[in-house]
């Protein structure tokens, strides 16, 4: 009956991976995130969209406690990973970040060889017992990032010698090398040209069969192309969260409608 | 929801253009229905000819609206309400084109009927039916302009009336045809005309449904009000 | 549809000028820029001229220190005078003082003169014996003590001639000035000339300038920068092993780990201030703290080194911090994102990238420390040191000198030959500084391409 509905993409799992309740984030006196409640599902790509300064990147960085590096930041509320509170005093943020990987806006490979870039994480977390196992992990991660065939003959060349799209895929390989459960991506394609962007987006689509992916993006088209669930942030509030199809064809909140159709911000 | 302007003002202009075309096309179709009904009633050959000619312009408008809508989708990447606007514009213009064709068909048959003896009592019924359908079409288009789902829902309900009127006319024509075989040709034409008007009513309902989709994001779930008796009618039932 | 249209009837305000002809404003601006470039060029030329004049003066004055006049004569090491007991017993031989060796040299020279039939009018015995440097007898004695078997033999000895004769060959001394001079005479000069004609006297390249220790006022010909070089080297070692780790660690802590509060701000301000403190103040500090309070030996490289460490610390911390700051935060974020701790991120990623900058800062700091004079004067390194300090670490506590201090010392002496020595020492210092700076540039270039 609903012949207007956009073709639904299969969402395989609906378990909740990360759960946030009543999250507030302050930078000094200023409140950047207000009362956010959201459930990030496993094996799903969730997109955070919203105008500049709405808090989506801030909230993303809460999920792997990267905000800890900023002295003036303060997080209240509860964020759980598989039911465990990640802000509990007993949690070591370093260990958390091995389970929740992050890819940044500007590709930032280490100025080391491609092999070293991918091997660094597993090495410091002791994921490989010997060189052979490390080689395996490196190959698996590079394959997982759709980069293996392009670099398998030059693993010892510096990572910074690759093209922009390849560098970002290298960063993705680096992030999956620590065998995380969740991948956080902060505008991963904004520094890339359209073809590299498409390659990374295709990769993200493949990644969702193994990881829960959260992607912050400025491009609504990208959110529409790549995600199954979308959350719209505005002025620090989570305004609407739902299936991507619904958000883009029949959003419920007028603020979402305005933003989606290009009427504000 | 649509009260704010787009940041990209060319987008607003494109939307206004395509919707204005739809409204224009709707107006032309309303005129065609009205004129076809009058031509039938008053046995006005010239008016009928006029209606037939003007259909070309209606078809051209549909073509133009499709072009504009394709351009809108390709260049502006419309989402949410704008997306629904682009999709409904295509559907509504297709519906309107078919209604225009029915009006042209009615005019064609009127042309033929002029040269035949009149079948008296059917005239009033047909006039009532076409009047209702004209009203439905006008309200559907008004509902479109105002994005009014309630008015559109009302239009849907009125289709039942039109169906009932058609059923009555169907039985009446059967009776005439059985009474006097010389009436058969005329009654057949009149029947087709009645069928066309009934289809126009269905199309007006279709437009109303698109309006509801546009305004709310959902097509109405419930089935259209329909009267099924015609499909079950047999010669035996018509006999008393 | 809403495009503004320029009304067709409006007249153009001015005819458009051709691109090919510059207008008045552009010409003025170009002229101003050309003038500015000329000023810049002029400034550079003036600086270069000053540099050229400086180098000329120094090299002109100092190159002479590297050439020295030697006398090569057969010397008979008479056993009767040197080893009376005849046992070649080192203890016995040691008892023979330099005076005896002086006599030996005297006799040998006289023998040469007689053999070659050199007859100079008005020459006195004193002139002959004074021809040879007073230092030579000590050097000969050292040679014999090192190898007692030489006694009884006749060896070809190469000995220094005295400062005035050396000066004659370098243009400082003339026949006329020799007549007035108490340390030499025209006859001595003529003798020297005669010996030169016979091929026994020559002015040669003098490597021993670099290896000899300092010499007393009477013997400028024997003075060398050997002790000064060692002293400076020891102090540089102290600075290297103390200032570099402390400075680097402090920079890392301040840049990466210190919380951003008032206390850290105060520390940073004070470090910047320390870099601007006049160096002589550090000398006073060294005097009070290391010599008076800690009772470390005066004139020792350890004290000089410690004072230089204090001076060099801010000069290492500040560039090291700048190098650390210049590592883009994206690298740190990437390391943290992969699950590295702060310490791992700093030591595995930030520090390797900052190392070239830190190294450059270290080398430049060392180069500056090498040339510091004022604080060393205050802690007493201006003394006259003739003995080489021992090997470190014990040698750090022996008295020594330093290159810049040696320069100062020599310029205070009366004999103009010491001026030449001072310029020679400056040349040595400049060469060291140049090498260090070139090394810093080389390091910078080599590592810069890495990321």
From TrEMBL, chain A:
Protein name listed in UniProt: Phosphate ABC transporter ATP-binding protein PstB
One Gene Ontology term of the molecular function aspect = ATP binding
- Ranges for domain ABC transporter: 11-260
The lineage, from the top, is: Bacteria, Pseudomonadati, Pseudomonadota, Alphaproteobacteria, Rhodobacterales
Q: Which PANTHER family does UniProt cross-reference here?
A: ABC TRANSPORTER I FAMILY MEMBER 17 (PTHR43423:SF1)
Q: What keyword terms does UniProt attach to this protein? A: ATP-binding, Nucleotide-binding, Phosphate transport, Transport
Q: What SMART domains does the database record attribute to this sequence?
A: AAA
Gene expressing this chain:
pstB
Which InterPro entries does this UniProt record tie to the protein? AAA+_ATPase, ABC_transporter-like_ATP-bd, ABC_transporter-like_CS, P-loop_NTPase, PstB-like
The protein's superkingdom reads Bacteria
Organism, scientific name = Paracoccus broussonetiae
Automatic annotation (TrEMBL), chain B:
User: What SUPFAM superfamilies does UniProt report for this protein, alphabetically?
Assistant: PhoU-like
Instruction: Name its cellular compartments.
Output: Cytoplasm
Which organism's genome codes for this protein? Paracoccus broussonetiae subsp. drimophilus
What keywords does the record list, in alphabetical order? Cytoplasm, Phosphate transport, Transport
- Give the principal location in a single coarse category: cytoplasm
Family membership, please give it: Belongs to the PhoU family.
UniProt function note: Plays a role in the regulation of phosphate uptake.
Record note on quaternary structure: Homodimer.
Q: What are the residue boundaries of the PhoU domain, all occurrences included? A: 23-109, 126-211
| Keyword Thylakoid in record | no
From the Swiss-Prot or TrEMBL record, give the protein name.
Phosphate-specific transport system accessory protein PhoU
The gene from which this protein is expressed is phoU
Q: Which Pfam families match?
A: PhoU
From TrEMBL, chain C:
Q: What are the UniProt keywords, alphabetically? A: Cell membrane, Membrane, Transmembrane, Transmembrane helix, Transport
Q: Where are the transmembrane segments?
A: 38-66, 233-254, 274-294, 300-318, 350-371, 422-443
- Domain named ABC transmembrane type-1: which ranges? 229-440
Q: Which Pfam families match?
A: BPD_transp_1 (PF00528), DUF3333 (PF11812)
Q: Which domain of life is it from?
A: Bacteria
Q: Enumerate the subcellular locations listed in this protein's record, separating them with semicolons.
A: Cell inner membrane; Cell membrane
What are the top taxonomic ranks of the organism? Answer: Bacteria, Pseudomonadati, Pseudomonadota, Alphaproteobacteria, Rhodobacterales
Q: Which family does it belong to?
A: Belongs to the binding-protein-dependent transport system permease family. CysTW subfamily.
Chief location: membrane
Topology class, membrane: Multi-pass membrane protein
Q: What is this protein called?
A: Phosphate transport system permease protein PstA
Tell me the name of the encoding gene: pstA
